[in-house]
Amino acid sequence: ESEAEPVPVLVPDRADTAQLQCRAQGVPGVRLHWEHQGHPLRPDEARFQEHQWREGPWTSSLLTVANISQDRARLHHQYHHLNWDQYKNRHRYQYQNWHQYQNWDQDQNRTLGTFVCIAQNPLGTVRRQLQLRLAGTRT
């Protein structure tokens, strides 16, 4: 089970939906499901729609995320009300990681959340992280 870097999926400027794709193969056949912010997606959640299909040994899943503009507005608001001192103190003892944080303001301003595609069959589980990010100009 690898905790590799999330794969960025860019949402075009002004788009209101985004699509995340995942596919896996295995013997026996693989079943895919998605998590968002650490929780499985609920089938009754109108904002997420999943379409899953098989082609030979491959199972594919296409997850459509709606209402992106809502997230964009929320991120814009958070970004402009950031308490920088609080943020700085939180990472005071992590100088060795500082390079990861120096673009934090731009990154947080663009990230709509991490989705995990989980492929399972009786032999095991593989997880793949996809990170939905805003493409295009800085807000």
Automatic annotation (TrEMBL):
InterPro entries in the cross-refs: Ig-like_dom_sf (IPR036179), Ig-like_fold (IPR013783)
Signal sequence, renumbered to the chain: none
SUPFAM superfamilies recorded: Immunoglobulin
Stated name of the protein: NPHN protein
Organism this protein belongs to: Steatornis caripensis (Oilbird)
